[in-house]
Structures are given as C-alpha cells and as structure tokens.
Amino acid sequence: MTITSARPKSRTDSTPAAQAAGKRFYTPYSFWFYLPTALLYSVLFLIPTFASFYYSLTRWTLFDSTFIGLDNFVMFFQEPALVKGFTNTLVFAVVTSGSKVVLGLLLAVLLTSRIIGRGYLRSVVFFPVLVSSIGVGLTFQVLMNPERGLINGALGVIGIDGPGWLTDPSWALMSIALIDVWKGVGLATLIYIAGIVSIPREYMEAARVDGAGSWESFRRIVLPLCKPATVTVIILSLIGGLRSFELIWATTRGGPGFTSDVIASVIYKQYQAGFYGLSTAGNVILFLVVTAIVLPLNWFLNRREVDL
Amino acid sequence: MSTAELVNHKPGRNYLLSAIAIVSSVVVFVIPFVFIVLTAVKDRQQSADLDFAWPHQFRIVQNFVEVLEARDYMLVIAFINSTILTVASVTGMVVLAAMAGFVLQRRKSRWNPFINFLVLSGLIIPPAVVPTIWVLQQLGLFRTMPGLILIEIAFGLSFCILLFRAFVATIPRELDEAAIIDGAGPLRLFFRVIFPLLRSVIITVVVVQSVNVFNDFVNPLYFLPGDQNATVQLTLYNFQSQFSTQYNLLFMNILLITIPPLIMFLFFNRRIVAGMTSGAIKG
Questions:
Q1: Looking at the partner chain, which of A139, A235, A267 has a beta carbon nearest the beta carbon of B254?
Q2: Membrane-spanning residues where (chain B) (predicted)?
Q3: How much is the ipTM here?
Q4: Residue B156 has pLDDT above 80, yes or no
Q5: pTM greater than the 0.90 cutoff
C-alpha cells in the first residue's frame, strides 16, 4: 500500500526536476534514431520539393537556369494541350474515386452477407490491386481493341455496337477510368469490409427488433457507421487518381492527340522533351491541386465525423 | 416478428444472389487473367487474332524460352535487377522506419506534431521529379541502382513509419524499463528487445512494400533509364514496341511478372489485407 501510493508522488516530483536538469536527463529514446530517416527524407524528398518551387520559375537545363517569372505557369494555362491535361486530372480523380466509393460499398455489403463462395469472391475482387499497372494496362489495351477486342466482341453478341474505347477521343479518358476502377475497387471493398465487420451485431439486432427492414438498417446503421471507411476511400483514391500516370501511359500515352493526358503525363512528356522548367511547373501545379483538394476535404470530412 | 425468428436471426443463404455474384465475378475478374494465360501459350499467328479461343498448340516452353532470350536475355537481367532493388529497398525501409516509428511513439516531445506532419506529407505530396534528378546528379547517383534504391526507401518510408508507430504503441513500456534496468543502452534496447517483437508488423510491411516496389514503374522510368539496368516493369514497356506483332511473347512477359505478386498473395493474403486496411485507416 505504501509503495503504490508513493510511486505516483515520486513521478510528479521527478518530472519538473527532470525538466530543470534539461539535457542531462537520460532517455533511451534517442533522437539519433531519426537521423538516417531524416537525412534520406530531406535530401531526396524535402529538398527537391522546395527546389521545385524555385525551378518552376526558370528556364532550366539542369546545369544552369534563367529566371523567367511565371512564364511557365502562364504557358501551362494557355496551351490547350496542357489545359486539357489539367481538367482531365480533375475529371479522372473525381470519376474514379466516386465509382470506387459506390462500387466498393456495394461489393462490401455483398461480400459480408451470407452468400456462397465469399472467400473466393473476396480474393478475386482484391487480386488486381496487386498486379502491376503496366501489365493491366497492356492487357486491357488488347481487350479493348475496337475491331478484334474481346469486350466489343462480347458486346456484339448481345447486339451492342461497342465504342472505340481507347482510340475514340471522347471515350479514351473514361475507358482508362474504367480500367482504374477495375484494378482499384478491391482495395476500397477491403476497407469497407473492415468497416462493416467492426459494427457491433447488437445494433443490427436492435434495429430488427424495432422493425427495420434491410434497406432501413443499411441506410440508418451501416452507412453512417462506415463513415471513417468512406473518408479513407475517398482520400486515398483522390490522392491516387490525381497522381495517376502508369495506367494512362501503358494504354494511350495521353492520346489520341492529347485527349487523355493528365498532369502527371504532361510532366513526363515535358521532361522527355527537355523542358525541365515547364515539367517542374507541372509538378508544382500537381502539388497545389493535391493539397488544395485533399487537405480541406480531409478537414471537412473528419469534422463531420466528430458531429456524429 | 416472433421470438424464435429473432433468436434464429441468420437468414438462409441467398442462392440466386450467390449465383449472380459468382458468374459476374468470373466474367469481370477471372476472364482477363485467363485471357493472359491463353494468349501467352498460343503460337504467334493465333495470338494476333486477339480473341478468346482455345490455343491450337500449346507453346508454353518455346514462348517462355523465347521471351527470356529476347534482346540478349534482357528479362533475366531485369528479374535480377528487380530482385536486388526490392530486397535492398524493403530492408532499408524496415530498419529505418522501425527506428523512427519507435522513437516517434515512445518519446513525447514538442517536435512530434512537426514530425507527424512530415510523415503525412510524404504520403500526400507527389514527388518533384526533375529536381530529384538534379539532386541525384549532384550526388553522382543518377542512373545508378543505389540511387534508385535510396529513392524507393525515401518514398516508402512514410507508410512504414505509420504502421510501425501504431504497432509500437501496443508493446508495454514496462518491457523497455526492464531492459534499461538490466543495463541496455538505446541501441541494444531497440535491436535486441523491441525489434524482435515487431515481427508480425515487419512481415506485413515487407509483403506490402515488396509488391509495391516490384510493381513500381514510374521511379525506374525516371531515375534508372536504359536497357542494361531495366527493371521488369520497364521490360514490358520496352518490349511493347518490339512485340507489337508477337502478342504471345508480350503476354508471356505479363504472365511472368504477375507470378511474384501472385505467390505473395497466396502465402500472405491476410498480412496484405491487414497492412493495406490498417495503413489506410491510419493515413
């Protein structure tokens, strides 16, 4: 009894004393443990990020740079090809993350209900997440071939004349979004399943006692309690969608023309063409777009979550 | 609703819904993979039809050998390169992120909010490409494998630190205290006491990040161009023009680079799921 009462007292005494002693106070949690991480992270991530703000304002050859003010940004928003890349990025991110939320939630509800082959279905829906984007892109490029592809062949059987998917300018971006959803919906489903499984059974039982049907309990229980999962899916797929490059590069390389270009592919094209300043300006724009969308959204969604 | 119904509340299995789900999963998710396999074993002429037909002849071995021999065994070299890249960068990530995550969780200081902010920005901010190349060139690491390894580590650290920080929180502090009383210094405490206890989260990190690094296309494209040290994802991209008339070889290549993630998935399904959802919810 004396020991248990003495311990907290001695702790409260020792804390100010330790603070007074300052750096001599011994801790086994050394700041040195941060050193390799901090070094690598600042040299290869933070310094380039800060440097990009300066070099985006220059004409740059990697060896010397001339300061040209905001010319790169002006060019970015005057050249139709580049403006198209900017709007495409937003459209692509919104379409893919919206579809992933809806389809992911539906699939998660389906895969937590009592159906046969649940384990098989979960695996099959999730596996494309682990396949490389380039492999998926090239496969779908063949499947979506307008004349000989499997998809249009199958649509032809049921009497639908399929579009030119990746070769038709008005379809190209949406086709890539479709492939992206095919590949990425498994992760959204997984996050939703984790959310649904964590809802206590009692809530559903209580709702049943009160006479709620399955739609009512989905609408009033599953949907609100899955809000953290929804926030995660939206934020993750928006970040991924705004930065997406691999799938687009594997399927259309921004074509036909520049109708499926996004900021990330513009960055690569300008880099290849040797316009390093313009490429870096694209990077800064991408940075601003991502932070301007994700940070307020994150704040907004998490604030609403507290209200519940 | 009767009490019996309420107690025995599990409804029967819905057979119609199950059938619809399984059929549509086969159409949407399984057929593309079957298509990859079928095309990979067809002969050159038949593969050019691009259709979903049974192969006239199975050329598994010939296609396999041909795709390996293409361009002076480029795919073999690429597999070696990708293995080196994956092993080295994932090892680096695990050690560095475990150390950082451990101190970040244990030591409360006024720097913590700032460090957490940096970790999160690493997840959100797209890396600035050309300035990174510029930095690598200053260091003499541009177009080298060590340079690419360091890049992969730097870009993957944030995700790993979040996982490690969350896991370290479940290890009781009394263990640290006991080790310190027994005379362990900071390094010994971490490497001999804490690090072995992190085993399960280390497996998760290793599995998730090795799939990520192995599948990475953008970073090798920017930071390690050139045929000699191509990674497997780049070979696919390089072969695309050469194989435009040889779809069987292109799909054999796709099949080969899909096998490592498939093996990971078969053995570590639960780990991958745990890592991706927990990391996702924390981030």
A1: A139
A2: 15-41, 73-102, 114-136, 148-168, 189-211, 247-268
A3: 0.86
A4: yes
A5: no
